[in-house]
Structures are given as structure tokens and as C-alpha cells.
Amino acid sequence: MNKIRKPIIFITLFGSLIFFFYAFYIDYQNSKNYSIMPTEDQLNSVQKNGYNFQIYNNYAILKDFESQGFQEDQSFLRALSNRYDYVLVVEFSDFDKYFTEIKDKLDKDILNNMRYVHYIKPGEIDKFDDQMIVQRFHRALKERKIRYFLFPDHPRTPELIRLVQKDLGTPVTIDSIKYYSPTVVVPWIGFGLITMNLFVYVPLFAILYILAFFFLYNWSFTLAVTLFSIIIFFRISKNNLLKIIGYALLFGALVYMSAYNSLFIFKLNNVRGIKVLLLVLPLLVLLKAFMDFTGFRFSRFNIVESFKKIREFKFNKSDILLLIFVAFAGVIYVVRSSNWAFVTNFERRARDALERAFIARPRTKELISYLFYYTTPLSGRRFIWDFFKALLPVSILDTFLHIHTPLNLSVLRTINGFLVSLLLLLVVILIENLYRKFTNSDQEPQKQEENISQEISTTEEGIE
């Protein structure tokens, strides 16, 4: 396997570079312009067969929605898609939450005629300042390719529209929006490259991935990055940052390629099982630490003896604080990875500031993980460091599961995270050096006085 591994990596690099520029072109075409519809109160409201929707030109808009059962809902959506140019889903609305649950089951001919529209509620306008709102619409276009904007009837709406236009340029008419779909060959190339790379490291992984791709398609992307995270951390390196980042970027691009079709890039299909990726590698790291410490082996299943060793383990007071920190970080790590997680206004402003500064904001999980690469583990507590180190490849690979985000932004986000971590490291080193210099400067006069006293006493002894 080692003999063919290098040629496979070379082929993968070459294919990924070509795909990067191809995806850049497609993503640019799908986010280069946008349209602002009339305010919500100016749209025509329609009620049909118990369903409510709005109309603008030849576009149907779905926001408030009451399901009448999946089959009835699908028939209703098919009728809309046949009647109108596009069926627009209001992002983060009641219908969007329901649509997220059913989109994987809907027929593709319906989904291909649907797109998202970004909308801000009147209550959110009251809550957020102008810059935060403008940044929301900026992200909708540049990060999620949402090209239709809708505002409510609100006193601040005219000014907000002016600021959005100042940020994104002059909007076009709704009929001028054109979409570019990737060629159907691209995902199959991604599938082939993933299979080859998994096979040269762990052949069983390649078999599992092939089965998932054909029978659990929406889960196959998460399975692929999960398997790649295990390969990176346990087979390639868990300490060499450049290797970890490089391989995570490469393998992440392959998974992105395997899902690069119009349904995923326009948020019309779900990537399933992301929590699996977030949990598997960190848990495997803890399991390995448990096995190394206790000698537990599944072949012998000596679980009783292993737990006896755990009871004999001597905990320090600092360990209790460390365990509480790890448990708290673990809960936050999983909960905050949700798309519907609560975010404070302070955090929103901080995120917006970072996005304006870096274009693609570094992920907090990665910055925390870098800290454990730059510090020395406490004696006997290396597994804690390994646990947090494992978050880095997981977080980088997770970035590439957001297929609706342009590939260049995902790559830039990872690079920015590494550069910011180096900057933080330099700041810490500078502060540490200044502290040592200040401490040493205070000790020098005291040392000089001690030396003078010793010389005087030595002289007196000589006289005597």
C-alpha cells in the first residue's frame, strides 16, 4: 500500500486543484448578484387548499406553513413548482424548519425548482443594529448563495435597503437571476478519489464508504470525513500541524467534491450525521487513553480488572477542575455546533468584526485546539491534550460538510485559523518574555546587594 500511496496523493492533489478553480467559477456565478423584492406587505397573499403562500411576479413564497401530511404537502409543492418559475423558501421561517425535515424525501423535480430567500423579522430589526443586519444579508449571499432578499414593513427598512445596496452593490431585477449547476461528473470523481485514498490506508474503510454512498447517500459524506479524521490522527500524525492541516484540507475538498451538485450547494438537501463526526474521533482518543492506562483489550474483555486500575488512580485537586472543564467544553462543543444554537448579541458583533477583518472567520474550536498543540502536556495527563488536539482535524473536516459555502471560503477559514493561532502564540511568547525580563530586573539589585555583603564578609574574615 505504501508504494501506491504517493501516486494516489499526487493524483488527488492535481484533481483537487482543478476542482478548486472550477468550484470557484461556479460559486462566483451563483453569488455575483442579488434581487430585493418589495416589502412583505406589498406581496399578494394566496390561500389554496388550506395552504397559505405569497406571490411576487411568477414566484411563490412560503413562510408560515401548516402541514397537512407529507403526501399532501408534496402534491402542493409539486403544483407550485409546475405553476411558478421558482418556489422560494423563507430562510429560518416555520416552513424552513419543516422543509429541513422533509427535503431529503421530496422528489428531485420539485427541489430543482426551489430556492431560498433571506428575510429578517421586524422583531430582529428592533433587536439588531444596522451593521449586524447588513452583515446577515452579506453572509446570505456570499456564504449561502441566497440571492433573493425580503424585508418587512418597518420604519428602518428603507435605510437598511440602502445600506445593503452600499455593501453588495446595485440589485438586479428578480428575472435577471440566473443559476449555474455543476456537471454531474464532478461528484463521481470525488467518490472515486475518496475510495482510493481510504483504500490505501485502511481497505475496510473504503468498503464501508462505498456501501454508504450507494445505500445511505446523505450519510456518506459524514462517514467519509469521520474515517479521514481517524486516518489523519492515528495513521498520519497527531503532532505535526502542517501535515494535519494539509491532509484535512485535501480530504475535506474531496468530500466537498463528492457532494457538489445543485441540491447541496443551494441547501436543498441535508448532509446527515454531522454529530457523528464531532464525537467519534474525540471518543476514540479517550478510549485509547483508557486502554493504554488500564491494559483493557476487547479480545480479553478484562473490563473488571481495568476498572480496578481506574479506582486505584490518584486524583489531584487540579484534576477535578480539569475534568469539569473537559465536560463543560464537550457539552458546549456539541450543542454550539447546531445551526439553531443560541448566540448572544455580543458574540454576533465579535463574529461580524472577525468576518469583516478576515473575510472568512476562524472557527473558535480550532483556535482552542491549537492551544494544546503549542503547550506541553501536564505529567500523566497527555490524554487531555490529545483529546483537544483531535478537535482540529474534526473541525477542519466539518467545515467542508457545509456544501452551500463556497470552497474558497472554507479553505480560507482554515488558513486564517492557523495564522491567527500563530499570532496569538507570538503574543503569549511576547508577554511571557516581558514578564521574565521584568521579574529578572527586580531580582538583579537584590542579587547585587547579596554579592556586596558576601564580599565584605569575606574581606573581614581575611583581616581577622
TrEMBL record:
Transmembrane annotation, as ranges: 6-25, 185-210, 216-237, 244-264, 276-299, 320-342, 415-435
UniProt keyword annotations, A-Z: Membrane, Transmembrane, Transmembrane helix
Highest taxon in the source lineage: Bacteria
Signal sequence interval, chain numbering: none
Disordered: annotated segments: 444-464
One matching Pfam family: DUF5693
Biased amino acid composition, Polar residues: 451-464
Name of this protein: Uncharacterized protein
Upper taxonomic lineage: Bacteria, Thermotogati, Thermotogota, Thermotogae, Petrotogales
